[in-house]
């Protein structure tokens, strides 16, 4: 494996998200290159402050479509368009989130998705024959493929091949050239000695006669003659390669020119590279995201400045079908990418990069990592005050507590988000909590007070619906040595957990204030969950009812009931995506229609199990594997407007369905060992659900 592989993967993915966040506010057409300069001058930082940055298609695609490698049955062979097409269908909510739903024949991704839904296989789904060259050659060919470059360090050919295979689900022609070029550049950045080497490697993976090759060479020629004039280079692009010459909403060729321009004129400086990509206008977040990945890998972590890194805070949110996966911890995800990289070359993964996806385990492995830890009061508390870690070995989180008297500050992990946590609703993110009642929290801390008296440390959680702060117990801790804080997350009585951490509390008068450091070397949430979902304590937002991610249908909160109205198949999902053995129950009240189901071990829209009323006086257990199939079915009398207690237990290969406390059906299947739970239907109708309970089981 290449040297510092994990660090460079982390820096590359971080760089991609920095570029996206920098470019997103100035992406709309009103923001021309001239207007950006008139308004902001020479960009040297984010132009907009967000409460939290909402989801973006430029992140959704690279994360969710790479999951094709997790879901396919064959391993050790190159990824195929069919593999990635299945990920499109499995992780995308119809007309919600993921990508731009701009209309069939207008939005390339919308068009390709509908083709797949109608049974047109990949790569025909994205071909120019099927969709025309205008649709096939929009910018999406290169904006959803960064992760394929990250898993092939130093192997641009494999990166280009995988990237093109993934892009061919939706794109063709120059769109595929863009995928090949960007992926090859990312792969080469792991070992390259110069930006020229990176660009030349990318060009070697596409035909010389292609427009993509020609626009990059045109930029290179201008740069060689005018190395200090990136604006002049952009004006050349406007004149010779501009939007007026390439039809569609956002063609790849003009933006390919901007990517090449930013790489050349950025000349190996991370900040300058993403800033130039944004100052040119056009598709700012896409272009800055692509070159941010390349520059992040090439420059490494130490060259990404704190002003860009700190607001990211090691976390992004997504808008795919799993609310649990939609809360993404960047250091942990970088380990997932690295695991694919090691697997691609047949090497054993390093122990420190191994993860258990069913639990949270933050180790602050690299300098400056925060794992989305936060402070409630920045007057008293600062995370990593120097912009990197304070340990001599570079590991761990540092929290400065400064001048605290009779007051407090919460140090916490943000485990759930609501609408009030965002400035906008970009790409409709939806969430399921990352932590639950019944789980065990373990923190490894060290405290050094520089002046003043010893402050109290009190573990706590905060609920989402009522915003209650539930304190656990006072911690009697030693100073200047490591100690562990452990506690079980208490029963939240149907509410969700949105914060978990500890409170730092003082009790002295101002003249006796305390200053010092708290170091965190470990933050872990482990063990089996045992919780309820009280619909009365939930909220309607982002087009759904918390904490569900919905795919079709109309889902509303009606008092204590989750009301579900649909005219076609539709489902809602929640819970830990990696939950294995568990028991889930709910009261189910059919109001209209003949199909009323609960789902278990759902891996997305196309994978999992379901059980419930399958027709008039019928009860069934289903398997969903790109289509629902009955595993077991029996007669069972049921009536409209009556309420039934459904309970489904999944343990090992067994699926057991009980109604009103009596086991009615059992089935065995080994296809899916973990997944979300939820509700849904395969046909029209109305249903109410309530009293939802989940209990994790020992395997």
Please give a structural write-up.
- This protein is an alpha+beta fold.
- The protein folds into three domains: about 5-305, ADP-ribosylation/Crystallin J1 (ADP-ribosylglycohydrolase fold), CATH 1.10.4080; about 355-525, Jelly Rolls (Sandwich), CATH 2.60.120; about 550-695, Exo-inulinase, domain 1 (Jelly Rolls), CATH 2.60.120.560.
- It has 20 helices and 30 strands.
- Strands 14, 18, 19, 21, 26, 27, 28 and 30 form an eight-stranded antiparallel beta sheet that branches.
- A hairpin with a 5-residue loop joins strand 9 (about 455-465) and strand 10.
- Helix 1 (about 5-25) packs parallel to helix 17, helix 14 packs parallel to helix 16 (about 250-265) and helix 16 (about 250-265) packs antiparallel against helix 17 (about 270-280).
- The chain is globular and about 80 Å long.
- The two termini are about 35 Å apart.
- Mean pLDDT is about 95; it is low at about 390-395.
- It comes from Lacrimispora xylanisolvens.
- Pfam families: ADP_ribosyl_GH (PF03747).
- InterPro entries: Ribosyl_crysJ1, Ribosyl_crysJ1_sf.
- Keywords: Hydrolase.
- GO terms for molecular function: hydrolase activity.
